[in-house]
Design brief:
The complex is a heterodimer of chains A (116) and B (118). Chain A is an all-beta fold and 116 residues long. Chain A is 0% helix and 48% strand. Chain A starts with a strand and ends with a strand. The chains are: A mainly beta (116), B mainly beta (118). Chains A and B meet through strand 4, strand 5, strand 9 and strand 10 of A and strand 5, strand 6, strand 10 and strand 11 of B.
């Protein structure tokens, strides 16, 4: 399956712990996006990365959240000192970076984070 | 102001009938793309169809078609011959162009829950 891979699918953390969410983009894609979906809501953009570069992190909370997409390996979304309000589904998407508006983003299955 | 508005929280349709899911959008950018995604109860987001702002024809993909009315800023999804497996949340999303660079950020509506009845 050459689709976007995310793991873990479900993650349970206690308040104050760290959460690490991983995303491997679709084969041939070098652009990665992270979105968060709160219950009963649509997805909200968090961050856009290319290999070794954060292009836009305007949707990411200023504290406790960070993201990276290293030269080798998956993209990581890291949440430090989690709080109950961080409980959500976190989706990763990837695209090939085609210029113009036809650059479709394909989504992974998501990671459901539950903070106890 | 909401950039993407989906006014139908829930819709019901009989199997084999057609259904239209509404989406209106708000942008002042002449270059934009409109997307529809399906989210079944299992949770994944599945890309369905894309419409570019400069496309002359309405997009179609199998049983999915997009009724694009640019002057009204609407991009309604039409599903023909509904199947039980079509029961899911459907999200409309927009990507706006940015002058001097590539557009990329998707803005989503709140979704419409479609239930297909046998």
């Amino acid at each position: 399956n050459a689709g976007v891979m995310q793991n873990p699918r479900h993650l349970v953390r206690r308040r104050g712990q760290e959460a690490r969410l991983r995303c491997s983009p679709m084969k041939g894609h070098s652009h990665v996006y992270w979105y968060r979906q709160l219950p009963e809501e649509g997805l909200k953009f968090m961050v856009y990365l290319q290999k070794e570069n954060i292009i836009d992190e305007s949707g990411m909370p200023k504290e406790r959240f960070s993201a990276e997409f290293p030269k080798e390996g998956p993209s990581i979304l890291r949440i430090q000192q989690v709080v109950r309000g961080d409980s959500a589904a976190y989706f990763c998407a990837s695209s090939s970076g085609t210029s113009g508006s036809t650059d479709t983003q394909y989504f992974g299955p998501g990671t459901r984070l539950t903070v106890l | 102001a909401q950039k993407i508005t989906q006014t139908q929280p829930g819709m019901f349709v009989q199997e084999k009938e057609a259904v239209t899911l509404d989406c209106t959008y708000d942008t002042s950018d002449p270059s934009y793309g409109l997307f529809w995604y399906k989210q079944p109860s299992s949770g994944e987001m599945i890309f369905l169809i894309y419409q570019g702002s400069y496309d002359q024809q309405n997009a179609t993909e199998g049983r999915y078609s997009l009724n694009f009315q640019k002057a009204r800023k609407s991009a309604n999804l039409v599903i023909s011959a509904s199947q039980l497996g079509d029961s899911a949340m459907y999200f409309c999303a927009m990507r706006e162009g940015h002058s001097g660079g590539s557009n990329y950020k998707l803005t989503f509506g709140k979704g419409t829950l479609l239930t297909v009845n046998p």
